[in-house]
UniProtKB/TrEMBL annotation:
It comes from the Eukaryota. This is Dihydrodipicolinate synthase. One of its GO terms (cellular component) is membrane. It comes from Coemansia pectinata. The lineage of its organism: Eukaryota, Fungi, Fungi incertae sedis, Zoopagomycota, Kickxellomycotina. The gene is DAP1_2. GO terms for molecular function: heme binding.
Amino acid sequence: MECIYHEQRSPQIRYKSWTKRELSKYTGSDNGPILIAVKGKVYDVSLGRGFYGTGCAYNVFAGRDASRLLATQSFDDGMTEAELDAPIDSLQDLTDEDLESLDAYVGLFTVKYQCVGDLIED
Ligand code: HEM
């Protein structure tokens, strides 16, 4: 898939509560919607397919709670079963600097993307 900017919303995504496992289906593969959770809220970032789509720079955040990675400005090897089974990350050990960095992303997501619900435990 080319990393171009698609002006594409996802009318099929209704506002609801999401578990990490449900969220994990929305990585944008097969050109489907892309969801990302940040600080307890779930955003439809399909408009940012050029960032988060398959093969794109920030694909590692797609379908996940990306809070810790964004806060710490880091990437990892991708979603794991252990991550899906674990409780929602409390982020309690993060530094003030990490939390400020995270809040900047929350600001961006709030302005740019549609919030489609809350992240909840299974
Ligand atoms: C060499 C380091 C990096 C470069 C050169 C870079 C570059 C960029 C650029 C050019 C944009 C687009 C800004 C715009 O639209 O105005 C962007 C957005 C973004 N970057 Fe980075 N970045 C880097 C590192 C990181 C890291 C470490 C993270 C997080 C772990 C990150 C997360 C993001 C996110 C979430 C966006 C917003 C995408 C969106 O609009 O949905 N970046 N970055």
